[in-house]
Every structure is written in structure tokens, then in C-alpha cells.
């Protein structure tokens, strides 16, 4: 008899095959009478687990035998001859991420309020998502099957959270035993198979900084070029992450880290021809420093981890000013009135953005103002724009001056105008006395370049 009733986690059920979600009209898939809801079970006798398998097993093949389970329950065998370049015109269900089996001291899931969107609690640890989207995995629970798949299907690059090469420290940070924490053999196997690795360190003061960080950087640098870069991002504490073993990242800590890592970067650039170990933008901003120049970042290998975003933004802003310089006169509303509004952003980015906007105002007669919005939803030291919520913007609305307000597009879900606290953009807009827009840089630049000729002058959020 069971002591507890166990409810299965229905969201994690993996059915065999991969489900088709869309079929393009007139495509090969449509010709084969494939429909949404059908599942592809095998290609040329090989089991298909997800759309990556389908892509891998059908790629480059002209003669195919595809086993399909129709949504009606019927089984079909399709014998296909196609041109090599002919696409099937199929879209598939999303990959259900594998979950991690770690208990990291700093896990972001523990730092979420209970009301946060369910997706923020997904503890994914999945080599497929690492390859597809640059999600980091720790490799602690990678199976033999997954390892073989990465190698066979060339799922490269892989993004690996190393945190520390010192085994004691890594095990301590991940909350696992040393045997699981030890990924040296797994890294070696990936490297021997020519899988490129980008590494990450979540920097926790007094745990993996100082000498531990130096050893981590140099141990990983010894694996260059197979390990091609290391991202060093600061620990983020929210009001919900109550972990006494963690120490907050301070401006002084950031300045010391820039000094110490700066020396290693110079040494590594001379020896490897790349900065190799990149510090997160937050470290420079929190230290009150400007971010490094473009050349420091090379081809921005860790941009998916947010490293070099500020530099990219500043460069785009400078290019925009040059472009605007080529047109003549001030930028005004169609009525001839000065362009006057407020840009809301995270407190961390407020200072550099203010400096950029000041240059814009001085050159083009605009009256744009930047206001840094506190993050009350997550609290702690969370200060980036992307984690601001509807409630945070509302709490700062008294500080809006001018005819409109802009919030960063990145505060909305990528596929829906909804913020992390569940508030929809329309709901927030209704509570502002002036028009409120959610912009990314491109939308903002497009508005300015057009001289805000349209009314409403600014582009609505997608
Ligand atoms: S690997 Fe660590 S930080 Fe990532 S989800 Fe798992 S416990 Fe959280």
C-alpha cells in the first residue's frame, strides 16, 4: 500500500513520435495528406522522438519511408521520393524540456514569487534546447542516449553551466554530490567529438570568485578553442530567494571582479586571440563603469546570455544619431510641437540610456526623459528592464512627463503582450493618462527616423 497518493505530472507526458501542428497548403506534407494532430513515428525505420529527430533523419534523404499514426488512430506507411531541397511544409509540437535534478543554491525558480507565470518555474536541463536556443545545462544528469545524440546529430554548440572547475565548489553550488558534479569526462567526450562548448559561471561572492574563478577561467581556457567562451554573470537575488549561504553582489565586488578578470582577459587575448572570459553587462553597470568597446566582444559569442547587449545598444544608438544627422532640423510632432515623452527602463540601464538620450535631445531638440523603474515584484537586487512587471510600471507612472511613455518591449512575453505578473499591455495602457507604447530599439528608431510623422507617432507593440 502506498503511503501517499501520487499525481502524475501530466505536462511531462511524452508520447511516442512527434505531433504535426501545422501543414502548409500546397506543400509536400499536404500532398501526402498529413494533417495537424498526426504523429510521425519513424523515418526509414528509425524512431522519431521530436522534431529534431525528424529533421536529422529526413535531412538530405530523397527516398523515405515514413510511419505515421493518424489522429484517427490509423497507421500509415508513406513511401516518398522527393527532390533533396523539397521541404515538407510541416510544423511540429514544441519540445517538452527535460528537467534538471540539481538543487542550485541560486536557482532562479526559488527566486520567483508564487504568482509568477508557470513558465518561470520550468527547470529545464535539456541539450536539445541548449543547441536550439542557447539554454544552459549543467550536464550533471545527461544520459548516455542524450550524449550519443548530441554527437551523432551534431547538436553543436552546447552551452554548459560550469560555475567552478573546483569539484567541491561545483558540487556545493549545484547541491549534488561530487560524482555527479564531475563533468570532466563528459566535456572531454564532447570536445573529442568536436562539439563546441560555451561555458557559464554564475558568480557568487565568497563561493566561486577570486582564486576559484581564476582557476575556472584558466582550466576552461586550456580547452580552447573547443571551449570557445565563458560568460561570467552575477548572482541575482530576489526577495524570495532566502538562502543564507549567498552573499549579494555589491558595486565594490563588481569593481574588484572587473580588475581581476580584466588582467586575465588581457593575458588570454594575447595568448588565444580572444577575450574568452566575458563579464556580464550588469557587472560593469553595477560597478558604475562603461561597458567595454566593440572589439572586446569579438563576434559576441555570449549575446544570448545578455553579454554585450549594452554595447550593441549603444552602437545602434550612435548609428541612429549619425543617420538622423543626415536629415536636417529638429524632430517634432506633426503639429510642430517638440517631441516630449518618458522612456521607462530598469534602474540598471537608466544611467547609460540617459546619457544617450541626452545626446539625442541636444542634437535634435527633443525632450525625452528616462526614468529608472524599481522592481518591486521580484525585489532584492533585480534591476534589469526585462524583469519589470505591469505593477512596477504602474507604481512609477507619476514620474511620466510629456505626451507619451515608452516601456521596453523585452518586458513583454515574446509571443504575447503580457508581462511577468500576468498584466496585459492593454490593461496597463488604460491606466496611463498618456499613450503608452512597448518598443524594442528598432521600433523606437523607426518612429524617430520617420520624424514621428504618423499619429499616433509611435509604433504599437507587436
Ligand atoms: S540547474 Fe540549477 S539553476 Fe538551473 S534550473 Fe536546475 S537547480 Fe535551477
Question: What would you say about this model in short?
Answer:
The protein has 462 residues and is α/β, with parallel strands linked by helices.
Describe the 3D structure.
The radius of gyration is 25 Å and the shape is globular. It contains 16 helices and 16 strands. It is 32% helix and 17% strand. The protein has helices at 28-31, 51-58, 127-133, 144-152, 167-174, 178-181, 184-192, 210-221, 251-272, 281-286, 294-297, 309-325, 347-364, 390-395, 425-430, 441-449, and strands at residues 18-23, 39-43, 46-47, 63-69, 75-81, 90-92, 158-161, 197-203, 227-234, 277-279, 340-346, 367-373, 405-408, 412-413, 416-419, 436-439. By secondary structure, it is α/β, with parallel strands linked by helices.
The separation of the N and C termini measures 54 Å
* Oligomerization: single chain
| Rg computed from alpha carbons, rounded to a whole number of angstroms | 25 Å
Low-confidence stretches: 1-12, 455-462
Q: What is the 3D form?
A: globular
Derived structural class: alpha/beta
Bound molecules: iron/sulfur cluster
Which sheet architecture does the biggest sheet show?
Answer: 6 strands, antiparallel
Overall strand count: 16
Question: What's the total helix number?
Answer: 16
Mean of all residue-level pLDDT scores: 91
β-sheet strand percentage = 15-25%
User: Helicity, in percent?
Assistant: 25-40%
